[in-house]
Amino acid sequence: MKYIVLVSRLLLGLVFVVFGANSVLHFMGGSSMPPGDAGVWTGLMMAHHYMNFVGVLMIVGGLLLLVGRFVPLGLTILAPILVNILLFHFLFMRQGVSIALVCTFLELILLVAYHRSFHSLFAPNPEIDTNKL
Q1: pTM recorded for the entire structure
Q2: Where are the transmembrane segments (predicted)?
Q3: For the chain, N or C: smaller number of CB within 10 Å?
Q4: Contact between 133 and 31 (Cβ < 8 Å)
Q5: Is 34 in contact with 42 (CB distance < 8 Å)?
Q6: Residues 6+ apart with CB under 8 A from 28
C-alpha cells in the first residue's frame, strides 16, 4: 500500500505540474480550439486569463504532492480543479475523459491514504454554542 500511495502521489503531482505549466507557458502543441461549446468555453477562460490562475494553482498543488510535505493541502487545492476538469469533459467534450478519470482515481487513492488529515472536517465541533450565534 505504501508504494501505491507513493506512485499515486508522484504521478498525480507530475500530471498537474506539467499541465499547469502548460496552461501558463503554452509549451505543448495543439493550440487549436475544440469545436462547439467546448471551444467557446475554453476561449472565454483563456481570453480572461482564468486559465493562467488555474494553471498556477495546478502547479502549486502538484508541487505539494511531489515534495510530499503538505500532501493534504495539495489534495485540497487540486480537488475542485479536478471536479471542473471532469465536468468539462462530461458536459462539453467526451474526448480526454479517460485521463480525467485516471487522475480522479489517483486523487481518491490519496484521499483514502490521508483520510486522517480530513477527519476534523466531518466531525462536529462541540465548542461552538449555536445559541450565541
Answers
A1: 0.88
A2: 44-66, 73-91, 97-114
A3: C
A4: no
A5: yes
A6: 22
